[in-house]
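Encode chain A's predicted structure.
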Amino acid sequence: MSKIDIKQQVTDKIIAHLESNHGEWEKPFFSVGADCNIKSNKPYRGINTLLLAMAGYNSSYWGTYKQWQEIGGNVIKGQKATHIVFFKPIVKEDANGDVTDKFFMMRGYSVFNLEQVEGIAEGKFKEPEAKVSFSDFPVAESLIIDSGIKIKHSNSDRAFYTATEDFIHLPNKENFTATKTSTALEGYYSTAFHELGHATGHPTRLNRKLGNRFGSKPYAGEELIAELTSAMLCAITGVSQSVRLDHVKYLQSWLEVLKEDKNAIFTASAQAQKATDFLTVAEEQEEALTA
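Encoded structure for chain A:
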């Protein structure tokens, strides 16, 4: 399958997922978990976090058919694979060994979730414990503080980031209410992470400039980046991804962006991963210093 076919296939799948959720105000839109590969034990990144989340499994462990067999497992007959992508770096050299070209080749892979496999000893893979109260999220609080981005709280019901003054405004924590799918505390953190995602685009940070990348929809593209960043940070900190009440507000414009450009979701995922890496590196460096 060619690179173009893979991108179109992925985009079409995401569009179908978004359209199926249209108008459901309380259903999680992007529910991204800390999915990882059973062989490398490394978490999936970028577009793959979204593709695996849409598969709808509770377990965060994934492997190819062969990888499950290597540890004694067997994919249950009739189970359908989840398709992800891998970008392999290609370097071309001339006869003298000088690099003449560098690029990435996209390949498609098929993986299966732990829930689709039999023969694996119970307890071999331990799922992270769910967090249920505000006091259980010190890592989330630490991430927000370590970002160094100024946050102001008030009794207003508005959440936003202003680039001109470089600060985030959030409603007071007690102003967040529970929905059918999330606690008020999950709502607060996912909203805070969404606005942190926006703040990473400031010229003093990642200096994110979308230009015409998203056609006539740069605002929708930026919102998509921020929402994916929120989902990734929720996974890293252990906060369950919640539903923002403005999801439906942006849904139609997101769909227009994706339908116009099959590269858009890959760009948004890559930018969201950069934002996530930027916001978590300070915490990782702090841990290294205190280890």
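The radius of gyration is 20 Å.
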